Amino acid sequence: MAADRLRVAVCGGGVTGLTAAFRLLNAGADVELFEGSQRLGGSVLTLRRDGFIFDGGPDAFVAAKPQVKELAIELGLTDELVETQRESRGIYFLKAGELHRLPEGVVLAVPTKFWPLLSSPLFSLPGVARMGLDLLLPKKVSDSDDESISSFLKRRLGQESVELFGEPLLAGIYSGDPSQLSLKATFPQLVGLEKAHGSLVKGALAARAKAPKGPAPSVFLSFRRGMATLVEALETSIQNKGGRVHLGAAVKGVEREGAGFHLLSNGTRSERFDHVVVATPARAAAELFEPFDAEVARHLRRIPHVSTAACHLAFKRDQVPHPLDASGILFMRSEGRDASAITFMSTKWAGRAPEGTALFRVFFGGYAHPEVRTMSDSDLLVAARKELRDVLRIESTPLAEEVFRWNDCRPQPVRGHLARLEEVQRRLSALGGLSLCGGPYDGVGLPDCVRQANSVVAKLLSGG
Ligand SMILES: Cc1cc2nc3c(=O)[nH]c(=O)nc-3n(C[C@H](O)[C@H](O)[C@H](O)COP(=O)(O)OP(=O)(O)OC[C@H]3O[C@@H](n4cnc5c(N)ncnc54)[C@H](O)[C@@H]3O)c2cc1C
Question: Which of 129, 180, 197, 313 is deepest in the core (most CB within 10 A)?
Fold first, then answer.
């Protein structure tokens, strides 16, 4: 090993840490990755069994943000990338116990066509009229305050849009409370629409006019054999390039020695590193930064997290009366049901379930259902079967069932999150040699995680 080769430790083997390690190795650094659990991937977890592919965490990433696709191409995974199936392009809402398809023309909670809304039982006439007022309302003058999703939607589109779009559609992605989540931190594109066009509807129409003609491309992408494909390819590449991966190696402390660092893991003190990239969940990161800056640790501990669980159930297709002609169902909170959403996995993606079967994912938990933490797997499966029976009239016994639990795993970018993050990053820059990136910080989506890893590595390599 050349004496001047940069030595970097990466803490956390989720997609963020793996991407950082991959990029550092590509740049010629000497890299060791420390992962606390016995497997890589963190929130990305795919089980392949009996012809089923169960994505326990994310099943997709947003196509409009290029970072995951670019990474996949670099890793030689171009042929593994898949779009959602055409027949899944649409979503149902459960309202007053009935399923209603969301009318066409709604783009990220913004209606671009009003006539289809008027003929849908999901909307009232005064509700649609109030949404139309967005075209006339002045834009907000100051963008200094950190508005919640609910407050923004209510101001621009009215209360009906908060109930329908705010909770199940937008905040649902975070399993969070729309009255607490920061719009700037979660959907900055909506802030941008108001700023640039003075109206969400006008902005969405302008974006549509600019979009290439022809059928709309898939909003989401995934991998043919599940999201873990990305993790597996990163792991292989890291190992081929000489990176060392330590599993079952939770980092318990970081010690500074001169301009370098040592990690404490499994009761031993590591060799010296020039730089440490922390890509762990916020609580673990807080422990590591505590001795360096207690204020950073305090900020990180104050990022709220909620728990969720995803139950996957498969049935014979001919035992499912519904046409399954959408990506799934979002439950309005006013329905008072245990679950928050059902995804039609085998409609959404090709090849996730054997021919003649249908695979569903039923989501539980989130801010409104903290009890999910204490429910047993069998309680969850009973609840999932009940949801499928009540909502989709599926009475038969499942062919396969899997439960994935995500306790305290969903970070909540609440109001004040971006200011908190800015302060954390400012303080870390002043410390030198320590970087922070990952889902709880600057964007939870996989493309955001990859972007953060890319930029942390670019900054580190440029000596920043
Ligand atoms: C149920 C669910 C569904 C999701 N759906 C989507 C989706 O559809 N699309 C999308 O884009 N995103 C989705 N996300 C979000 C996305 O999966 C995550 O934001 C992303 O995977 C986070 O990656 P990460 O590497 O930053 O963190 P993590 O995946 O949390 O990885 C952190 C790693 O650090 C390890 N660790 C913890 N403490 C230590 C320590 N002290 N030392 C060493 N290692 C440690 C952990 O074991 C873990 O492996 C979903 C998340 C969940 C949970």
Answer: 313
